[in-house]
């Protein structure tokens, strides 16, 4: 169980409203800085690779390379989050990510192979950060504010990615990659410095998760013993894999391939995407704050799949961008509602396991969608891939709800 020091870290002044909790502002600001750097680096790398190769698969592998080690090392991630205070973990991983940027910038001018190897290590740092942020939210935020905090926290990721995309489009478009990497390193270092402002806390639990494949057995047992976790866990997994996976493929291939736009359209589309996803996250926060009845999961899957297909029905003009942004807003609304419910239902002494498992399982499934979908896009076209992903997500989402007990249906 959490230590007495952890109890002191939970600020009762933020009861019911995370915006009144100082720790939330620290977590939000640090994530914003980190995500700005990540977007700046990855947009530059993926755009350059797509222009050089013309392959959606090659460009998507910049993102997919970030996911391999986190999936394989999920038990290690969970044990680190369980045994160490989140403040310490977050500072250490941001510093490590900053140190990796310089080699990435240098290697990008020589060969793609070392870039992908370095991105594997960068991916492990990113996964550790995401898991530790989930733990930090659960430890520092009061229970009656955790759902709002979880949905609001995603706006830091969204706005940071948007600001990074804006920098990429307006400032760094003509920068050499070593300069982009150096700027990213500075942003990661600033994020680490922000986490220093967090108050002390203990580790989330005195019991470390199992090692190796035993970790995943433990996750299965936890889901089996906690019915309220099952539906949001699987809903979040499908949402991440299908819709975020499709966006990972389409963020470059859709404007450059389908719309036949120039390079600046990639960053411009990303900026609009960030605004749309921020709107979706804010809508989810308002939905929770106003205590509106939650839509059934199948409704969210149906709406998101329909919006995914909308850009293919409206031509190739500005309406295609608007339709794509509508898809991203509805996707973020669904994602935020599922994530908030998962955070609320998770026991505090299981947060390290659940935070890691949901993130890593989502990454593994999303990586599979990205690789298979990118191969399908290269072979049959991006539109056919969009139809396949939209239909599969809807069928799976409806299926998990049919298998869920009535007690875990949203109310």
Question: Could you name the key traits of this structure?
Answer:
411 residues; 16 helices; disordered C terminus; mainly alpha
DSSP summary, beta strand count = 0
pLDDT < 50 stretches: 1-14, 407-411
- Rounded mean pLDDT is 83
**Could you say which overall geometry the principal axes of the C-alpha atoms support?**
globular
Radius of gyration: 20 Å
Task: Report on the architecture of this protein.
The chain is an all-alpha fold and 411 residues long. It is globular and about 50 Å long. Helix 6 runs antiparallel to helix 9 (177-195), helix 11 (227-258) packs antiparallel against helix 12 and helix 11 (227-258) runs antiparallel to helix 14 (318-345). Helix content is 78%, strand content 0%.
Topology summary:
Blueprint: H1 4-9, H2 22-53, H3 56-64, H4 68-72, H5 74-83, H6 86-108, H7 112-140, H8 146-170, H9 177-195, H10 214-225, H11 227-258, H12 264-289, H13 297-309, H14 318-345, H15 351-380, H16 382-403
Helix pairs in contact: 2-3, 2-8, 2-9, 3-11, 3-15, 5-7, 5-15, 6-7, 6-9, 7-15, 8-12, 8-14, 11-12, 11-14, 11-15, 11-16, 12-14, 13-14, 13-16, 15-16
How would you sum up this structure in a few lines?
It is built from 16 helices and no strands.
């Amino acid at each position: 169980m959490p230590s007495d020091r952890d109890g002191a870290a939970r600020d009762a002044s933020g009861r019911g409203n995370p915006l009144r909790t100082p720790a939330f502002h620290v977590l939000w600001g640090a994530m914003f800085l980190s995500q700005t750097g990540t977007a700046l680096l990855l947009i530059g790398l993926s755009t350059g690779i797509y222009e050089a190769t013309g392959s959606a698969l090659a460009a998507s592998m910049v993102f997919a390379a970030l996911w391999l080690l986190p999936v394989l090392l999920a038990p290690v991630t969970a044990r680190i989050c369980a045994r160490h205070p989140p403040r310490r973990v977050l500072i250490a991983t941001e510093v490590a990510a900053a140190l990796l940027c310089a080699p990435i910038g240098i290697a990008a001018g020589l060969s793609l192979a070392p870039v992908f190897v370095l991105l594997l290590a960068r991916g492990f740092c990113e996964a550790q950060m995401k898991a530790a942020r989930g733990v930090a939210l659960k430890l520092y935020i009061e229970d009656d504010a955790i759902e709002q905090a979880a949905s609001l926290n995603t706006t830091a990721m969204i706005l940071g990615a948007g600001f990074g995309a804006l920098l990429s489009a307006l400032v760094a478009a003509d920068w050499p990659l070593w300069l982009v990497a150096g700027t990213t390193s500075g942003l990661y270092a600033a994020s680490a410095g922000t986490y220093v402002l967090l108050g002390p806390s203990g580790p989330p639990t005195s019991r470390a998760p199992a090692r190796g494949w035993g970790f995943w057995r433990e996750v299965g047992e936890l889901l089996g013993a906690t019915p309220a976790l099952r539906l949001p866990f699987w809903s979040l997994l499908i949402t991440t894999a299908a819709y975020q996976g499709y966006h990972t493929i389409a963020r470059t291939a859709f404007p450059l391939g389908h719309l036949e736009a120039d390079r600046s359209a990639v960053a411009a589309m990303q900026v609009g995407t960030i605004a749309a996803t921020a709107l979706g996250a804010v809508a989810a926060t308002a939905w929770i704050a106003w205590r509106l009845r939650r839509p059934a999961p199948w409704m969210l899957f149906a709406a998101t799949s329909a919006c995914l297909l909308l850009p293919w029905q409206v031509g190739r003009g500005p309406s295609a961008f608007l339709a794509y942004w509508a898809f991203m807003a509805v996707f973020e609304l669904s994602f935020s509602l599922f994530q908030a419910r998962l955070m609320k239902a998770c026991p505090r002494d299981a947060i390290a396991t659940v935070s890691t498992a949901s993130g890593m399982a989502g990454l593994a499934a999303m990586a599979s969608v990205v690789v298979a979908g990118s191969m399908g896009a290269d072979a049959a076209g991006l539109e056919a891939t969009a139809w396949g992903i939209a239909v599969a997500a809807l069928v799976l989402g409806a299926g998990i709800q049919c298998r869920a007990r009535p007690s875990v249906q949203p109310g």
